């Protein structure tokens, strides 16, 4: 799905340039590509991922491992996931010393790990920077990640369309960790979307910690402070489990809720349609599988099938689709526990 739109676009361009005149130019499909299953050059991919202390983070690690296992030509050197920057730096330096062909890194802290990314690149090891971006583009060859701003933007537009005919509509926001840039981006996207709906006002915002416990506690505070509102945008489906507990305990069902990330439990609740949760905005953990595809292509010195370029793109940003009752069946298989 990541490359599907680009593939269609490339096909349209090629069709428009076709003529009956012979050409000395090579056909686009003659160029090397590495996103197929055919075995090619042996590639050792070093993977430094996060500690799996959250549903989405665990799903990222699982996606990476499963994707690497799919390829006969890939040897997967995986470190024990860590959220400690010093530990992760040491793990990456070990992979550098092992002279892996490519590194895939989801840094605990992009800023703190920039130097070790630079060290790998200077050692001739291409780095695929996953999700949390390094401070310098020189620290990675390719970036693969989600669209945090787009996540908030799409949540805002979904809520806006649901409430566009309601006078003096009121919405609240249950954000994630405020010290993370991604949280600020999600809030900014949401606020920018709401500017298109002058009848809607955001009346409260509470930051949680991406955990079930924090979601429950912070949602209880929101419910106590706001006796009436029409919609809730919750940044994360894990903390959303706690938020839903607080909502149930308060006996509230007078608003709609939009979640974030795409947890299986959230999708099942959306499908059942027997509560306030009506949609979730994806932040696909499949980005880790795509990062393995990119790393394999880099290690084999090939491009991506479906794209006209010989080189792997320097950046790939996934789309944050809105999943509601109308399309949840299409996305259910991507839901993570």
Tally of separate helices: 11
Main beta sheet, described?
Answer: 6 strands, parallel
Which spans have pLDDT < 50 for at least 5 consecutive residues? 1-33
The third-level CATH topology of the largest domain is Rossmann fold
Mean pLDDT: 90
H/E series: HEHEHEHEEHEHEHEHEHEHEEH
| CATH architecture call of the largest domain | 3-Layer(aba) Sandwich
User: Domains counted in the coordinates: how many?
Assistant: 2
Q: At the first level of CATH, what is the class of the largest domain? A: Alpha Beta
Radius of gyration: 22 Å
Estimated share of beta-strand residues: 15-25%
Structural commentary:
The strands form 2 sheets. The chain has a 6-stranded parallel beta sheet with strand order 2-1-3-4-5-11, with helices on both faces. The protein folds into 2 domains: 4-145 and 286-306, Response regulator (Rossmann fold, 3-Layer(aba) Sandwich); 148-283 and 324-334, 3-Layer(aba) Sandwich (Rossmann fold), CATH 3.40.50.2300. By secondary structure, the protein is an alpha/beta fold. 40% of the residues lie in helices and 18% in strands. The two termini are 21 Å apart. It contains 11 helices and 12 strands. α5 (148-163) runs parallel beside α6 (181-194) and α7 packs across α8 (237-250).
